[in-house]
Amino acid sequence: MTESNKVIQCPCGTTLLGADDDAVVAAAQTHASEVHQQELSRDQALSMARPG
Fold it and tell me: How many Cβ atoms from other residues are within 10 Å of residue 6's Cβ?
């Protein structure tokens, strides 16, 4: 994926990319769960998303 429509910058420094809202939310939820052992809601993820 060379271009994405949505980007989330995690406070840990990881950049999460997605072609649309669903993709970036899924990436953020997976990252939060696997790396930070936290659950992230769709609304929480979207509140951090920016155009990419």
Answer: 23
